[in-house]
Amino acid sequence: MSKKQLSAVFVKMGDKVPTTKYDPNVNQDELIMKQQRLIEKEIMDSIPLVGDKEDFSSLEGEYDGDDIYKQKVKNLAKNYKYIRRTRPDGNCFFRAFSYAYLEKLIDDREEFNRFRELAAKSKENLVALGFPQFTVEDFHDTFMEVIDQVGKHHSVLSPGAPAGEDLHKVFNDQGNSDYVVVYLRLITSGQLQRDSSFYQHFIEGARSVEDFCHQEVEPMYKESDHIHIIALSTALGVGVRVRYMDRGDSAEVIAHDFPEGSLPQVHLLYRPGHYDILYPH
Amino acid sequence: MAGSALRRLMAEYKQLTLNPPEGIIAGPINEENFFEWEALITGPEGTCFEGGVFPAKLIFPPDYPLSPPKMQFTCEMFHPNIYADGRVCISILHAPGDDPMGYESSAERWSPVQSVEKILLSVISMLAEPNDESGANVDAAKMWREDRIAFNRIAERIVRSTLGLPPP
């Protein structure tokens, strides 16, 4: 959910929003920002970064009395068994994507090796594009640590090692989890800039690809759009299927594969402004 | 969260000590607390702030570098982009969308790949070239635009006071 939508929701609920009279001596923008922080804190305290796996049918309860959505959930249930929710903080696409993909790598050693090599090289590519080595390194180191934690389980003798639990812990540790998000944002930005003549067509207005990256990709909490997903999935060579569930008339929930024609390794559910993880049957 | 911030701040401190950029000294006020720094910034050559050594404080949030620090000069300042209480108002100290002054959309913004060094270099450019569109100090912005001689006189007095010299 976007911050704007959230503010609207919270204002409507009349909850925790301080009512203040207009005071011309007070910087209104600063007040708005303060309120924003408050809303963000509410979300932080109530929703984990990445939740537990839930039965897909748990979604139905959210749409009592809403036939359009209910029908869509029913249709999706034919394809998906579980859902895993993520915190709506603007980073949800990156967090959902990386969690779902790394979880998959726990059981796919070959793909893991391919990805690890690509991830290891990615830092040099970013530095070559002009990203500052010193700060990129900070995020890259954590990114590799998280990947290697997944890899560790490939060499463990006891096959019952709860790799999934470890991953869950790492992704719910704000520091590690956010660093993974930052690094994926950098990779996305790098891909956009490397292939800027292609991506320029997707950017509205007169903004250059570079400005777009500085304003919409690299900073935390900025929501992701198609262009982010295309760039990231292309850069990593990882197929993503996104199921778009909105108020459209069709009872089917449209699927988009990124990059086009790829074999999906990660499945995400999109509801306006937010991404969660899906698990196929 | 604060753990990664601390690690990053220690690394930045080391980097700034080993390779200090010209005209800048910065580090934690007290090594027990890496989230509060002091910086000394030399007024850029060829500007009305030349020769001055301006002390400032940087306060880092627990989720640094995801969010930017705040910066405040601790000496008297008179500059279009510095509030009367010393707080610095430039775009790099704000993430996009986080916009108290409505900066130009192309202006450089905070993102986690920025650093203390980048901030301080931006502050030096700000001292050299005030942005009189973003008026943190409206009087200073007006004087900068309309009466440069008077502005320079105030700047000179401030420069001298940072060096412990009496007004000219």
Automatic annotation (TrEMBL), chain A:
| Signal peptide range in chain numbering | none
Lineage at the top is: Eukaryota, Metazoa, Ecdysozoa, Arthropoda, Hexapoda
Positions of the catalytic residues? D89, C92 (nucleophile), H274
Q: Where is the OTU domain?
A: 81-281
Check the record and name the Gene3D superfamilies matching this protein.
Peptidase C65 Otubain, subdomain 1, Peptidase C65 Otubain, subdomain 2
Protein name per UniProt: Ubiquitin thioesterase
Q: What are the recorded Gene Ontology BP terms?
A: protein K48-linked deubiquitination; proteolysis
Catalytic activities = Thiol-dependent hydrolysis of ester, thioester, amide, peptide and isopeptide bonds formed by the C-terminal Gly of ubiquitin (a 76-residue protein attached to proteins as an intracellular targeting signal)
| Broad enzyme group | hydrolase
Instruction: Site Interacts with free ubiquitin: give positions.
Output: I230, Y244, D246, Y270, Y275
The protein's matches in InterPro entries, at most eight in alphabetical order, are given as: OTU_dom, Otubain, Papain-like_cys_pep_sf, Peptidase_C65_otubain, Peptidase_C65_otubain_sub1, Peptidase_C65_otubain_sub2
The UniProt similarity line reads: Belongs to the peptidase C65 family.
Enzyme Commission numbers on file: 3.4.19.12
Residue ranges annotated as coiled coil are none
Q: Name one GO cellular component term.
A: nucleus
> Carries keyword Secreted?
no
Any GO molecular function: ubiquitin binding
Q: Which UniProt keywords apply?
A: Hydrolase, Protease, Thiol protease, Ubl conjugation pathway
Automatic annotation (TrEMBL), chain B:
The lineage's top-level taxon is: Eukaryota
Q: Which residues form the active site?
A: C89
Q: Which InterPro entries match?
A: Ub_conjugating_enzyme, UBC, UBQ-conjugating_AS, UBQ-conjugating_enzyme/RWD
The EC code for this enzyme is: 2.3.2.23
Reaction catalysed by this enzyme:
S-ubiquitinyl-[E1 ubiquitin-activating enzyme]-L-cysteine + [E2 ubiquitin-conjugating enzyme]-L-cysteine = [E1 ubiquitin-activating enzyme]-L-cysteine + S-ubiquitinyl-[E2 ubiquitin-conjugating enzyme]-L-cysteine
Note the SMART domains from the entry: UBCc (SM00212)
UniProt record, GO biological process: ERAD pathway
Signal sequence region: none
- UniProt function note: Accepts ubiquitin from the E1 complex and catalyzes its covalent attachment to other proteins. In vitro catalyzes 'Lys-48'-linked polyubiquitination. Involved in endoplasmic reticulum-associated degradation (ERAD). Required for sterol-induced ubiquitination of 3-hydroxy-3-methylglutaryl coenzyme A reductase and its subsequent proteasomal degradation.
Give the similarity note.
Answer: Belongs to the ubiquitin-conjugating enzyme family.
Name used for this protein in its record:
Ubiquitin-conjugating enzyme E2 G2
Q: What is the species of this protein?
A: Ladona fulva (Scarce chaser dragonfly)
